[in-house]
Amino acid sequence: MAQRTHRYICLAGSMVRNFHTARFPRCDKVPMSNFDSGIPLPYKKLRENLDIIKGRLGGPLTLSEKVLYSHLDQPDSQEIERGKSYLRLRPDRVALQDATAQMTLLQFISSGLKKVAVPSTVHCDHLIEAQISGDKDLARAKDLNKEVYDFLSSACAKYNLGFWKPGSGIIHQIILENYAFPGLLMIGTDSHTPNGGGLGCLCVGVGGADAVDVMANIPWELKCPTVIGCHLTGKISGWTSPKDVILKVAEILTVKGGTGAIVEYHGPGVESISCTGMATITNMGAEIGATTSVFPFNERMSTYLCATGRAAIADEATKNKDLLVPDEGCKYDKVIEINLDTLEPLVNGPFTPDLAHPISKLGGNSEKNGYPMEIKVSLIGSCTNSSYEDMGRCASIANDALSHGLKACIPFNVTPGSEQVRATIARDGIIDVLEKFGGTVLANACGPCIGQWDRKDVKMGEKNTIVTSYNRNFTGRNDANPATHCFVTSPEMATALAIAGRLDFNPMKDELTGTDGKMFKLKEPHGEELPSKGFDPGEDTYQAPPAKADDIKVNVDPKSDRLQLLEPFEKWDGKDYIDMMVLIKIKGKCTTDHISAAGPWLKYRGHLDNISNNMFIGATNAENNEMNKVKNQKSGSFDTVPAVARDYKANKIKWCAVGEENYGEGSSREHAALEPRHLGGVAIIVKSFARIHETNLKKQGMLALTFANPGDYDKVQPSSKISILNLKDLAPGKPVDAEIKNNGSSDKIQLNHSLNELQIQWFHAGSALNLMKELAAKGGDKK
Questions:
Q1: Where does the signal peptide begin and end (predicted)?
Q2: Phi first, then psi: what are they for 412, rounded to 5°?
């Protein structure tokens, strides 16, 4: 049966439309994608590089090491030590979503370069607000965001990027369906870029400045990750889904347990998971702080490649399978074990994705902890769980309920991951089932998952519960309401819970009452892994770059409140930072959502000054346990955080912010680094950083510092003045001296950093972009 399905799907793959590929010259070799006909698969080069690496290192390698090290800029001389050395890499491609693409392209434009050096794409998925229904919300978004979409479209055409129009789908699903292939190294300006690991890629979330480097043909720098092995045994079955694997991993490793590491899944249990299921797992690996996650190449990936019109890539990957699986006997820095036979469905939350509740204990735990038992809304889809298989399995639950006269008793929102998935589930009757069940089908976009949700059913501040198949559930994440208790789970469990409308319902054992008065239990969900009729591509939403772009104009209106050309940040003046004000001492969790909120603020992502008005408004001030209320130490009055920062900047007063553990976890948004820099901040001092955000701060010329003694956090008061000393001696691995002054007393402390020599040059130049321009002016870039 498996062979017949694979052969049929390969034939069905030929139904995929013939895309425009004029941007590169034709190539007789198998191209990286149907959009990149002039760019061949890199297996030959990767094999050559890997031979060099194996000759140097000896011994078996993990899959992560094979893919990563084979993309080294200088494999013959690069220092390689897990967790210590900085690798200089050559990614195969770059992906940008529309919210982060604005600032990324503005930075690229300011670099003065004429076109991107590697295949790159922009995907319009973040600016569509869920309000009524898919078609109406999409039309409204096109109207409201016309200026931004026009800017992105023209910039893509001018600088040789592919452009996926609004309505095409979520960036990670478009990548999986069209661009991902086993062995790919890709960076993307979204934290859930690791979704591509489900197809054997190393896909890493980064800030826009990193993307600019790669698009400018500068090697991308990454601290050599450690490798965590996740050994899977048993088989996925029944109510258990791939989502439960990553929910369990999150429980084991916590939100910072994967920091600085690649999570590599292996073992016999892998074979029971579909390609899109593997993508679900690697997607949500961002929630444990992992650099990325990856699965080894197997038949399920080959089948998916064929189903999406890439049979030739499947054949080439099969020929090169030794490059795409770990070597026998390879060494992991840590190994966790998960038996899929005994894995119970999980529901994680609220307020953090690593607080796991087995479905059998969810009701009791909710009652014990005072979580609102009544569920107000159930939402399925998003970039994590919106595949054909996901939707089909949810439809099977819906059909079961409908056969007993039941449907969702609460609002039930459905987000298809792509236009291709939407068109296919519409053709196959799945949308019809979900709508009869009570579902509202939203646009092919991120929507409520990122806070793009015009929610009307509860008042701001009203305590309530929602369940989603999304990946992230920080405070206020989905609806800006800090009292919303969001639980993340599988789409199957979210669908079942929508029928009962309560957290204490366990579909594995609890019965429901049909309209005929009879009791029944829901059947275990089921669904096709891939459509037996092949995928329907739906509406063509892709814009290829033209062959000639010299006459294309990219205009930014100086009066616009959505877009703003960038001015370079000031260079370091060579002096120590003396008596900095503490703008805010942050208490507890501080994600990039807390630093730079999304939701309604997304419309200002291309205008640095306007979006800076959301800086730190979600962070809790340790002085008064309030959000967006800090004391202006100059005037003595309280005001919003951005207002105080602007006052300090206007008076040329340098300031810093102080935080706790895993500062900057969550989204890859570099605005969380750009805004403090724009409003006069010079340093962020915390107990520990999340990887992407730490890099983003460095890129913008900010000092990202950690307390050598975490207890020194307690020495900092809102009225403290902090000095960072001997900056002229700043060097890799050398702690920084600092002094904290409090009401006439002072404490001398040490601060650590992870700056290497190049990153110190960024600091001296004022930003990585400034350094790029300096080097370009001298006739070359920093290789």
A1: none
A2: -130, 110
Tell me if residue 607 is catalytic.
no
CA dist., res. 528 & res. 255, Å (int): 32
718 CA to centre of own chain: 33
pLDDT for position 28: 52
Q: What is the DSSP string of 719-754?
A: T-EEEEE-GGG--TT--EEEEEEETTEEEEEEEE--
Active-site position among 667, 668, 754, 767: 667
Q: Which of 36, 125, 400, 479 is catalytic?
A: 125
Helices (DSSP H) in 73-131: which residue ranges?
Answer: 98-111
126 is catalytic: yes
Predicted confidence (pLDDT) at residue 380 exceeds the cutoff of 70? yes
Candidate list 98, 190, 210, 712, residue with the active-site label: 190
Task: Note whether 269 and 376 are within 8 A (CB).
Answer: no
Structure tokens at 502: 């309560």
Stated pTM of the model: 0.90
Alpha-carbon distance of 34 to 605, in angstroms, equals 31
pLDDT in tens, 612-660: 999 999 999 999 999 999 999 999 999 999 999 999 999 999 999 999 9
Distance CA 81, CA 66 (A): 14
User: Which member of 93, 594, 669, 753 is catalytic?
Assistant: 669
Q: What is the pLDDT of residue 600?
A: 85
> Catalytic residue at 712?
no
Sorted by where each starts, the structural domains of the chain and their CATH numbers stand as 344-513 (3.30.499.10), 577-779 (3.20.19.10)
Is-catalytic flag, 669? yes
